[in-house]
Design a protein that fits this description.
Helix content: 40-55%
CATH topology: Rossmann fold
Oligomer: single chain
CATH superfamily: Creatininase
Largest sheet: 5 strands, parallel
Strand order of the largest sheet: 1-3-2-4-5
Strand content: 5-15%
Low-confidence stretches: none
CATH architecture: 3-Layer(aba) Sandwich
CATH class: Alpha Beta
Shape: globular
């Protein structure tokens, strides 16, 4: 049983139809993203870069397990109200993002993919709530589960780094390490090295009623320890994140 991995963006439509028709097991992986400030050292597209890299690596891993795995172009925008006030941040309301993501997932389902996966690295509460609602609507309309690997769930979070689990991880060691592994040319390492560690557990701030980065004390749109980031840690995290997707797909396939 042979598998293959493809980027939908570069395929021609006859290739897509032929690949799906000839596949024993098929998966579409759709990356969700955001355009949001990530400290003075990381690009605004950090979340999209991570989500896309996870989709690509997961597709490659699934191909070795006999799946046709097609990763879609990323949906670059998200609900990003928390970083309002930082230049370049672009927030799109849930009333737009939700239907957009849902329609992309439903389109993949109509093409005939056995499973549709949603990858995401943007953890703003309103964005996560939007994607959870998408998953619920998708299942209601298709009768099948949208495989949304939600890292904010304890079961998934415990697989990741100590900084991620602490909640003090926006543009910190965890995310800076990932971008060093994915696109090191987009990291201002001098700026990262100059940033002091900033321990601000966001989940506690949110529970206390904070509604944006300013209210949480993220004056430069970061918390955590960017100066401690390494590409090696980023590679390790990418491997874990991709495996989460593989595990979700394999578990769903066992239920088919």
């Amino acid at each position: 049983m042979s598998g293959s991995a493809h980027a939908l963006f570069g395929m021609r439509y006859p290739e897509v139809a032929e690949a799906i028709a000839g596949a024993d097991r098929s998966v579409a992986i759709i990356p969700a993203g955001s355009v949001e400030a990530h400290g003075p050292h990381l690009p605004l597209g950090t979340d999209t870069l991570i989500s896309t890299a996870v989709a690509e690596r997961a597709a490659a891993a699934l191909a070795t397990r006999g799946y046709l795995a097609v990763h879609y172009p990323p949906l670059h925008y998200g609900v990003t109200d928390w970083a309002e006030g930082f230049a370049g941040t672009t927030s799109i309301g849930a009333e737009v993002i939700g239907p957009l993501v849902l329609q992309a997932c439903l389109s993949a389902h109509r093409l005939g993919f056995d499973h549709v996966v949603l990858t995401n690295a943007h953890l703003e509460p309103g964005h996560i709530q939007t994607l959870r609602a998408v998953a619920k609507d998708y299942e209601a309309q298709t009768g099948t589960a949208l495989l949304f690997v939600d890292k904010t769930r304890r079961k998934q979070a415990q697989k990741l780094t100590a900084e991620f689990r602490s909640g003090s991880c926006h543009a910190g060691q965890y995310e800076t390490s990932l971008i060093l592994a994915i696109r090191p040319d987009l990291v201002d390492t001098a700026a990262a090295d100059a940033l002091p560690s900033l321990e601000l557990p966001l989940h506690e701030k949110i529970a206390a009623g904070a509604k944006n980065f300013a209210e949480c004390g993220l004056e430069q749109a970061y918390c955590g320890a960017p100066a401690k980031a390494t590409a090696q840690e980023g590679e390790s995290s990418l491997t874990i994140l991709a495996q989460m997707v593989v595990d979700a797909v394999e578990a769903a396939s066992l239920q088919d």
